[in-house]
Design brief:
The chain has seven helices and six strands; from the N terminus they run E-E-H-E-E-H-E-H-H-H-H-E-H. By secondary structure, the chain is α+β, with helices and mostly antiparallel strands. The chain folds into two domains: 91 residues, Rossmann fold, CATH 3.40.50; 102 residues, P-loop containing nucleotide triphosphate hydrolases (Rossmann fold), CATH 3.40.50. The radius of gyration is 18 Å and the shape is globular. The chain starts with 5 loop residues before the first strand and ends with a helix. The chain binds adenosine-5'-triphosphate and magnesium ion (MG).
Length: 204
Amino acid sequence: MNEYLLDVRNLKTYFPVKGGLLRRIIGHVHAVEDVSFRLKEKQVFALVGESGCGKSTTGKSILRLIDPTAGQVIFDGQDITQLSQEEVRKKRRDMQFIFQNPYASLNPRMNVWQLLSEPLKAHFSLSESELRDRVESMLDKIGFTKDQLQRYPHQFSGGQKQRISIARALITQPRFVVADEPVSALDVSIQAKIINMLLRLQKD
Ligand SMILES: Nc1ncnc2c1ncn2[C@@H]1O[C@H](COP(=O)(O)OP(=O)(O)OP(=O)(O)O)[C@@H](O)[C@H]1O
Ligand SMILES: [Mg+2]
């Protein structure tokens, strides 16, 4: 097996800057400039830096939410930057992103059952009872009860919504998760609770 689960090599992501009457490309923002690091399975890695230095763009480029300009992202021996969109979609089972803003990241038309069962349906072929077991076990881990399954995102607090989006990201048991400031939009009082929950889930 590979010694490293993730091997990011010389990653670069540039955004075009348009200007003038014709909105021509007049330059590029070098959001990610030559980033390299390696991670082993189960390892926690923190990317720290001032606002705008490229942390979110690095995470999104690794998961192909944004296509990087250059470099390689070797995940479990495979270069993610070379995959087709369809292959990237299949990789989502093993590579997930937790967004900063729980208000924007959940589909308001889906209830908790739909939000949590959808990723399982997309990546596994489970029976109805297996599906129910997996969803209910995750529900328990985030401190929710079964009677909340039929409720919609707007019926929850910010902290509860963020717990749902974390549950959604982790329900397929991905091997690699990018958590982009997962608690910065929340009250200080519930930040610690969510971080502790994430650390517990990471151990599972
Ligand atoms: N879609 C985009 N189009 C053009 N420029 C972008 C885009 N997304 C980010 N940028 C620019 O890329 C740079 C890095 O942004 P990024 O969001 O990665 O920073 P960050 O380190 O996550 O900052 P913060 O701590 O504020 O979240 C910034 O200069 C930003 O303006
Ligand atoms: Mg950011």
